[in-house]
């Protein structure tokens, strides 16, 4: 995360909120697939896996695969590389395939994913302005200087009361 700082704001997403937003994404996608419906979901690991599970459940899509993209740092420029492809027999050129990720930020990850499946439909739960053109469907936009905190990266912890003492 350090190479992506500074971020002025934080947007904290609870499991409950993530569930609601991923369901809203599924609702928006329902009926918008090609004739015959969506054939498969491809989750972009790892952040896309929880949203993809929720979307595939809501839309009753049983064929779910993954694509793994790793961002390598070469002199501060992050260069995403696909380190695991989905099953070619399942996805083909992407027709009828729903690619799901938690968010788009710069759009670099989706650039390489789209190149691998040009005809797929790309859906993210959250989007930042720079990456928006890379997404077909999303639910909530946040500003570019906002860092989104996901529930799998967080834990409940004690917070000091405003009045300054611990009891
Ligand atoms: O639009 P971009 O600037 O490419 O950023 C968006 C990507 O960054 C995060 O994944 P990350 O690479 O951190 O890996 P993870 O999903 O395994 O946490 C996020 O889950 C998106 O996949
Ligand atoms: N968790 C998280 N990962 C990211 N990867 C790129 N942008 C973000 C972000 O805002 N939050
Ligand atoms: Mg990711």
From TrEMBL:
GO aspect biological process, one term: XMP salvage
A GO molecular-function annotation: magnesium ion binding
Subcellular location: Cell membrane
Catalysis: reaction(s): IMP + diphosphate = hypoxanthine + 5-phospho-alpha-D-ribose 1-diphosphate; GMP + diphosphate = guanine + 5-phospho-alpha-D-ribose 1-diphosphate; XMP + diphosphate = xanthine + 5-phospho-alpha-D-ribose 1-diphosphate
Residues reported to bind xanthine: 105, 148
Co-factor(s): Mg(2+)
E.C. designation(s): 2.4.2.22
Record: residues binding guanine: 105, 148
GO cellular component, one term: plasma membrane
Residue ranges annotated for the Phosphoribosyltransferase domain, each copy included: 14-158
UniProt KW keywords: Cell membrane, Glycosyltransferase, Magnesium, Membrane, Metal-binding, Purine salvage, Transferase
Entry-linked HAMAP family: XGPRT
Function: Purine salvage pathway enzyme that catalyzes the transfer of the ribosyl-5-phosphate group from 5-phospho-alpha-D-ribose 1-diphosphate (PRPP) to the N9 position of the 6-oxopurines guanine and xanthine to form the corresponding ribonucleotides GMP (guanosine 5'-monophosphate) and XMP (xanthosine 5'-monophosphate), with the release of PPi. To a lesser extent, also acts on hypoxanthine.
Assembly description: Homotetramer.
UniProt name for this protein: Xanthine-guanine phosphoribosyltransferase
Native source organism of the sequence: Roseivivax halotolerans
Lineage: Bacteria, Pseudomonadati, Pseudomonadota, Alphaproteobacteria, Rhodobacterales
């Amino acid at each position: 995360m350090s190479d992506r700082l500074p971020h002025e704001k934080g947007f904290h997403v609870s499991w409950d909120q993530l569930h609601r937003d991923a369901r809203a994404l599924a609702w928006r996608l329902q009926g918008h697939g090609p004739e015959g419906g969506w054939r498969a979901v491809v989750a972009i690991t790892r952040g896309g896996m929880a949203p993809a599970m929720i979307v595939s459940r809501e839309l009753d899509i049983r064929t779910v695969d993954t694509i793994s993209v790793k961002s390598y740092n070469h002199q501060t420029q992050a260069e995403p590389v696909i380190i695991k492809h989905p099953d070619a027999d399942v996805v083909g050129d992407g027709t009828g395939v729903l690619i799901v990720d938690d968010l788009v930020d710069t759009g670099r990850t989706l650039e390489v994913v789209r190149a691998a499946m040009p005809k797929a439909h790309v859906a993210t739960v959250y989007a930042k302005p720079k990456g928006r053109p890379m997404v077909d469907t999303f639910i909530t936009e946040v500003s570019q200087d906002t860092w989104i905190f996901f529930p799998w990266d967080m834990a409940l912890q004690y917070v000091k009361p405003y009045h300054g003492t611990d009891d």
